[in-house]
What we know:
The complex is a heterodimer. Chain A has helices at residues 7-32, 40-63, 84-99, 103-127, 129-134, 137-157, 159-162, 181-204, 207-217, 219-224, 229-255, 265-279, 284-303, 305-308, 316-334, 350-360; strands at residues 67-69, 72-74, 168-169, 257-258. By secondary structure, chain A is mainly α. Chain A has a two-stranded antiparallel ribbon with strand order 1-2. Chain A has a two-stranded antiparallel sheet with strand order 3-4. The model of chain A has no long low-confidence stretch (mean pLDDT 82). Chain B has one domain (2-226). Chain B has helices at residues 2-28, 35-53, 61-85, 90-118, 147-168, 170-180, 182-187, 192-215, 224-238, 244-269, 279-291, 295-306; strands spanning 135-139, 142-145. A two-stranded antiparallel sheet of chain B has the order 1-2. In chain B, a hairpin with a 2-residue loop joins strand 1 and strand 2 (142-145). Chain B is globular. The model of chain B has no long low-confidence stretch (mean pLDDT 85).
Amino acid sequence: MAIVIPPFLIEILLTLGIFLIITVSLNFEVGYAGIPQFGRVLTVLVGAIVAAAIPGRLLVLMAGITVEFRGEEIVPYGAEYANHLVNFRLVDQINTQILGVNPGLSIVMFIVTLILAAIFGAIIGYLTSYPALRLREAYLGITLLAFGDALQLIALNYDPLVGATQGVFVPNFFLWVGATQTSAKIIAILIVAALIYVLVHFWVNSPFGRSLKAMRDSEQAAEVYGKNVPRLRGYTLMIGGALAAIGGALWVIYTGSMDARTFNRLTWTFWPWAFMMLGGTGSHKGMLVGVFFFALFRYLIFAYKGVLEPFIPISIQWLEYILIGLIIVLVSMFRPQGLLPEKPRTLLPKERVEELAKASA
Amino acid sequence: MEVILTALVISAGIALAAAGITIIYMSTETFNFAHASFTTIGFFVVYNMLLVFGGSPYYYFIFAAIFTGLVGVAVYLTVNRWLIKRGADMVTLMMSTLGVDLILFGLINQWADIIRDTIPGSSPRNFLLRTIDYPVAEIGGTTVYARVPISIAIVILIIIGLHTFLTRTKFGIAMRTTIENPTLAKIMGVNTEMVYLTAWFLGGALAGLGGAVLSMIETGSPQVGVRYIVPLFAGSIVGGLYSVFGSLLGGFLIGLSQQIGIYVLSLWVGTFINAYKPVIPLVIMVVALLFFPEGLGALAEKYLARRGVKK
Lengths: 361, 311
């Protein structure tokens, strides 16, 4: 892995990779199944918590690392792991003594972490189907939003989990790469994002995806054709939750630390909504366009900050909010179908459908 | 005692702003996320005018209401009216107000920067008006500040005012008709555009007023609305979303249970629970949605109907 990504690309590719995963998962729930997921941050945070809380503890147990804590030598796999006095030394030990010298274990642990994140994300996603089966539209949106906020509060205040406001460090699975580890992380993120993108592409074009769309367009019609709507909704929330959790896990693995404060609903729920709407809700390719456009755009504003600043009366920091807001407003007003609208899919080739239409007319 | 007084003021603020959400939702079916920023604007109008003109913060409550009401009107005219004409669905309407909220949030932050740069000694990212309040009475050793009677009086005035407006004036009755059946109202010659416009003005004004009331107790910052939006929605939803008075009641319920409930809990299980204060409205809201989807307003009506009281 001696590939070195130029620094200017890192920022763009990072945004692209992470938010592609999250936006695809959001589109899966909103665009295909019609669930107003205003609580995307919930499962993203679940993934981040899993990545911050579990692999480190597993490694501590496996290697039997001991630390001195309140005058005693202990193996810190419980609440002590997240203690801010212990955690930084511990993660440093894990990194340098285990992960840094053992590439195979690092890769295995990286994959195990993502799988665990997906499993927990799926469980939490499935739990949210309780209200999702009983409420409609905006009510459901608000409820999901409330769940996201509630989990953030718990993560912020319950310190045995991930150190609350102190945060915890996340084991570095790429230390063995050496100097180019940032590039390696970005490549890993892009690989996972690409896998998820392709996987979801096949899912949404499978019979399962088509029944989701049928459910979105008319629940009654889907039920008439024998689709189990509650089960479909449950599966959607499970898959969406699992994918978003992988995104959250990758993010904290990249940054190397977990701070619950950064998991606010603005960045992890509303931004993906903006990307999704920009690209075209319900269009899988649109997600790539929306996120790419945004990643580039965001990079450009920050890169040309100095050039822009004298010309506008608003500081760049706030301009970002205003521009994202404007995108949401303008897209919903003038181009609700997005840049790359969803195309109606036919099961037969186009010519055949046209022929049939002619014959019946 | 202190706890109860604080809870009353916060509840009054939440109730007013929640009633604003309800008015906008009832008339235009828009869940207004921008209410977060509307409330913050209430805070900033009071703070900014206090810095510039001095005197008592209470003088500026009315300006907070009017200014925020006009912001509401601007949002209606630029965004909401267009979307309603196009027949946008509920989620699109909701998303568009989220965009508006982000724009307003950016502008409020810029406003805060301008205050910081132009007025020496100001701290727009962390201001507390509570400290300049006037003591008016003493109950059992606890000083009662002017904010308590004033906020309660505002709520009562709003209830009386809205009730008179909605039941005794021609336009108020037209407004109720439009809410119940827009098509019929149009046929009868009601100017529904005007009704929606008024609803956005009232909704915005109530949010601004709620923000002004909250500014007397809560630390002000550009983020304050973002923190309050969930209790506001909770108040509105618990109230049933189709009844302004229900949402005033719901706001009070949310505010009181949040403030007093957490105090009781902290005595009972320990002070660590204080950090989870914002969870209370979330729980109440989710429970209300799942078990009493028609809300407090409808429950109260049912109760009154059973007692033989006619509407």
